[in-house]
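Dear colleague,

Thank you for sharing your sequence with our group. We've completed the structure prediction you requested, and as agreed, I am returning the results in plain text so they can be pasted directly into your records. Please verify that the sequence below matches your submission; if there's any discrepancy, let me know and we will rerun it promptly.
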Amino acid sequence: MYGKPDIEKTLQLLHHKKPQENSEISFSYNVTFDGVNPFISTGTAPFIIKSYLYDSMMFRSPAEPFTLYPLIVKVAEVPKDRTYVVFEVTEDAAFDDGTQITSEDILFTFNLLKNKGRYNYQVAYKDVSAEIISPRKIKFHIHNGNRELPLILGLMPVFSKAQNEDAFLRQSMEPVMAARAFQIHDLVPGKTIHLTRNPNYYGKDHPLSCLRFHFDHVKIEFFRNEQAAFESLRAGQIDFFYERDLTRLNRSYDFLDDKGGAYKRYEVPTGYPSGLYGFVFNTRRSPWNDIALRRVISDIFSFDMLNRYYLYNTEQQIKSIFMRSDQSDYQKKSDEDLTTHRMKLEKAFLALKEAGYHFENGVLHDANHQKIKLNILLSKPKEEKYALFLQWMLKDIGIETAIHTVDDSLYQKRLKHYDYDMIIDHRYVSGSPGIEQRNFWGCTGRTTEGTRNYAGICDSDIEAALEALDKARTKKELQAAISEIDKNVMEGHYYIPLEARLNHHIIARKDLALSPYGVDYFYRKNI
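Please find the predicted structure tokens below.
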């Protein structure tokens, strides 16, 4: 959506408040890091700092369906068929060192990300070429008919062509030369990043800057688990915390009463589909490439029991990737309420026998007499309860299960190389699904490291649906493609779905000078 958005009117409608001088916010982030470049696959850089240290060419409003506002560039020309887009650099756009941004910098960045950036950039830009029209204008040609690409290109960062390309490709604690609203004031690798507002930022007086950034100082505390971060909140050492744990939510928030109103808890509607949260089989490995085995495990898993024992009987199992939206008409059927666990087991034993599995001393074996063993890799201790529940259920069909909870750095490394049998993943989806779906489900991700296709999916029907999604021209065509992706992912039993909890975010924070929009935007940019 390009349109002609009225920024000033938007700010008024959102009750915007400018930040107070020397205002500060601190919050937690549950990863570690060894650099601050989130655009390459080398090392581990916190995605959270992307919006603070690297301006994208245009600003995407989270309050509107894929609407972009001018920032570094504005749209000079785009035809109805969207086979190309021309961007024009705004007059005041400049890098952190004060150097004017030019179309050559944009071309340099595009080629760098297309050829050597993270997988998602390489996928998005592979059917795009670019040419310089003038020092301030650049034209991108789109060769695959994907109507979303002009918008995707508008979200590209811009790096200075004067910098060394090799330096960009090495993970470092020094940020790449770019246009940035904040600078790194202090940094302790793996522990803290303290950011301060950049006094030389070209957009410091731009209305969008006041909307995007409410504080002069931002301090990010990195923790290896959520409980440690929560204890920091309870001790008053951080200002903002996103709550994901229902047990903690129901049992550990009495401390709010002791803070005299200094801290409050909010529920912020997401407006997004549920996404897909659950156990993920790595189908690159045997025997998890056998859909018959995956189906049996999925069928005996009782979400109803999990909900009663662990989730306060308040949650609903995910039946569709796009649950709670009108984007897909697919809805996975379930006989949860109609079938006893004993009946499920009887059905499972018959299905396993038909698929060539057998039991030896109560342990499930394949046709080659190899034991069926499942290793579940976790990084969050709070998810151990889910893994233990699955382990308990799998005992009934003779599957040995081991659970390994590792620190985040090792987890991210193993995730990158797909070194696991099963993980628990939350696949967030956009309110406007598009090219990112290929990163989640596309065949290339089965063999290419560093993608988000954690299940190793390569399905011809899904590939066809991804092509249809790229070329969709109407809402009906878009929804048909999304429904086909939804159906084949869900019925492929790549995931064992868990609860759909993203109808709202639960946030605990100090009573800070944030507008309602600020709370929501802050969350969406920092999960």
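Summary note from our side: Residues 282 and 421 are 5 Å apart (CA to CA).

Kind regards,
the structure core
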